[in-house]
Amino acid sequence: MSAAALLADLRAAGFALHPDGDRLIVSPAPKLTPAQREAIREHKPGLLACLWAETLKEHFEERAAILEFDGGIPREEAEAAARASTGLLARNLGLPWAALRLALNDPALPDSPDPVDRPPYGLPAWCLTPDRKPVLQGAFYVHKRSL
Fold first, then answer.
1. Which residue has the higher pLDDT, 138 or 59?
2. Which domain range does residue 65 map to?
3. Does the residue 146 lie in any domain?
4. SS in 3 state form for the chain?
5. pTM of the model
């Protein structure tokens, strides 16, 4: 059984699973059978990767949508910036490469439980200012003051 199939089975049985760093929180834990506990132990790295992938995928989709719809950035550019932002988030949180690979469906990324140790897509090109205006990262403007 794969980690994804086990996760689906556990959810169907009424369990909630949440990642907490490299810990896996299952509730209600007292209702786990010995076989379920053993399966969770066996598939823990894969379960964590699946759960963190869900978080990273949500982050990617949200960033891409904000940049595209609020910022008016073309979809392709918005997705590239969102991919870079998601890679940076995975690195900053010390999440496994496997989670980032699953989240972004990118077979070029390592399928490893080791933590992301570099921003795989560079830095995001676009961001939004607090008033929702798109701005290129690293770009700045000098405003002349009237004297």
1. 59
2. 3-136
3. no
4. CCHHHHHHHHHHCCCEEEEECCEEEEECHHHCCHHHHHHHHHHHHHHHHHHHHHHHHHHHHHHHHHHHHHCCCCHHHHHHHHHHHHHHHHHHHCCEHHHHHHHHCCCCCCCCCCECCCCCCCCCCEEECCCCCEEECCCCCCCCCCC
5. 0.82
